[in-house]
Amino acid sequence: MYREVRENRRRHTNSHRQPFAGFALSLFLLLLLASCGSAQATTTTTGTQHIVKSNVPATTKMIALGAQPCPTTAASTDYWSAVVGIQREQNSIEKVSCGHLEGNDTLQALVEVDYNGASGGVKDIYVYDQVTGPAPTKILELKDLYQGDARISGYNTVITREVDWNSSVNKGQSADSVQRDLYREFKWAPGANGMLPVAFRGFYPDLTRYQAETDQQQVSKSHEQWKLDPRQVAQHMASNLLKWSGASQARILKQQGVDATVSLKNAGQDGGTITVTLSRLEGRSDGIWLVTQVDSDALLITQPTPLDHLARNFTLTGKGPTGVSGQVKVFDHLYNEIGSASTTSAGNDATTFHTPVSYTPTFDKGSEEGILALFAQKGNAIQGAVMFKALLG
């Protein structure tokens, strides 16, 4: 009798619990699914410490690239005449453009000042922050750019163009015959609270971002379509910079998205193989291909590193194969050699060497972009190479 009563009570209790348990389970599953839809997390254990890491990216506000409309006040040349301190007999505000140069949702103004009122004159370039405030803050000043101009790049930097009077194409030329051959780039540096010169990673077929963006416009109009083929870009580079045969054999090792790696073999009698790394301009799917680095087996530069700012006298540390003559070269903004040194390797294997290098740039009013190279040579033929961009000056 007791067993029957207890069994009936258990059945009665379970008959009430089961609907509630089903409801609770459904509610739990709904909450779990909702949490999975809005956030995911993984737990890792380090010793006795449990670390929970969210897999959900933080909300990031997209910042528009390139020149943007200026606020009404900042678009006025009269406004900037007062800020810059224009003397109407001598100079005038030629152009004002705005962009997110500090990488956030605030706008900065690029102001061009023309001294002669003509396209061939001298210009000053300024960049200001707090563009609509009572006292805009100057974060970049470039003076006396002959035939100069500036613009906001597709990477939210300021890129400029001017004449280098002492370059190989301009030295000794009259003012009417000189070419605008020097291109520079400036990027916001929070630690410096201003804009500093930087080096564009690509170095062929264009050495600077200004040239590459101009090139991109031409290629988009169906000119020089070879710049859309990484193999052809690598072959052109080897022909022009390494003086390899135009019949160099190119093989794509990897091409994924906006990056590619090409193996290039010299078809000439002296041989030689290099690996060429390329990227599309500014990550664009239709961007031109730009060589960013060249490498070779058993040849290495450990110091400096790509995009470093090189002093005019520095020490290169590297490795090279025994018995192969090594040459360090520094090239300027026109691909001209402005510094060189020889390396020596000893021993049975690739050996580390330290080589003092000096160079003399033609531009003496600041830094410029250039190339640092280490060549393995047999006679006058380059059999191997390491090349990358650097900031010179």
Automatic annotation (TrEMBL):
- Give the UniProt keywords, A-Z: Signal
- The reply to whether Signal figures as a keyword in the UniProt entry is yes
Signal peptide range = 1-41
Protein known as: Bacterial spore germination immunoglobulin-like domain-containing protein
Origin species, per record, is: Ktedonobacter robiniae
